[in-house]
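Progress against Task 2.4 (sequence-to-structure conversion) is shown through the following example record, which the project officer requested during the mid-term review.
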Amino acid sequence: MVERSDRAPLLDWEEVPSAEKPGGAAPAPHARDRLASPSNSRALLGCSAPGLGWSGGGGGGPGGPAADASPATSVTPAGTDGALPPDSDEHLSDSGPGEASLEDRMVKWEEKDQIVSVFVVAFNTRSGNMLEWCLPKDMDLEGVEFKAIASGSHRVSTDFIYFRKGCYFGLACFANMVVESAVERGARMKSVGILSTSYTLLYRYMGFLEHQVRLQLQSPGHYSPLEAFYEDKRALLPPSGDGVVTACPANAWGAAINHCMHPEMKITHPAGCMSQFIRFFGEQIMVLWKLALLRRRILIFSPPPVGVVCYRVYCCCCLANISIPGVGVAVPEFRPFFYVNVADISALENELSYVACTTEKIFEEKKDLYDVYVDNQNVKTYRDGLKPLLRLSTADREKYRKLTEQRQMLLYSQEENGDCVSSEEDLFILFFLEQNNRIFQTLSEVAGSPDPMVTQESVRAMGLDPHGDRLFLLHLLEIYGYDTLLVSEQLCCS
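Structure tokens generated for the chain above:
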């Protein structure tokens, strides 16, 4: 099995200490390889994949201005998380002679720099977290000091944090160094972070940020590499200032949609991220799957380090991917907020659907902010209407058994046949994508039949339990606009 690094290559102008050079990152891959790499692939256009097609302006996402557009012709702003085909071996170009190939144009679009700010946050023993330095100087970074250094981070030596700031997404790398200083009380803590218009590109700069935070701890005030980084990578935003950069060429989507095997919305590519997520929750993953598909507000609590919990946010979003065009355009977007703290309370109060993580236990008492609270492997809700969904149905256990069997078969194939193409990440993402598609394909067929009745047979065709999943199905019909369908009286409560 080929493992991909979750660290971005160091940039050409980055100052690398001599001791680190032998372990330096591999050179940047060819543009074609970048296009084909799963870590750079984005979600399939036409999917209502959660969190995709979302920017602060809401353009291009379900329910946004582009919601009524045809999936084959919609244009998703580059500030949102749009589509890129993982298969670059086939030429998708429909351009005439003399024009650049579609692949080249999509690579050029996908490679567009989208960094809108770079900053350094430090912990001060007298005033707490504080913004030490930033570019541009007039950027509104109020509150970012509490996102870049998570509550409780003093207990860990290093961490990384994904977060949302207004209409932008951020990545910060934190480090804690022991120092002989009474003023600093024996510890120096800092974070170096960036803001971007898209979270799918942030992973590229993780290695750079990790190196820079070490540099800031060892040589405080040395900002020249960060200044050079910002000048090299800053986004060219339109005059309107709405945070949306140039969109992917419109004629790319029609050809690209048929070449996307499945959505991947990778924020980075840590080997086994999805595998660890599913092993961590076990059968409870089926409960999270249902709640994600129902677009519930899910808040995950965990003490630091918070980086691995940000991956759980990403994995939670993957559970609700749907690739049937038109399905889910009227439901709330499943927005990934990643790390949140008390400063985000007012923002979360207005959200209909999201998944986020926090290190602050106070959130558990804010029951009006979430529908589902996940503490370690314990999934709970205070909403009576959702409590039955926390019980596993017979079909849930059967699906989890099949998922486990498929994983074992994949591992056997990798060991016996040297299969380096298939991965557990792909297997898990495809498993839930196909399950979701199966549900909505069946519902569409029932809705188009002369007798639009949801029967035990049609429920089984969806892979659900006619009795144990009745409440889940009723919620699903209401949320996705199938509430005109009749439900057979034989589907009684268990």
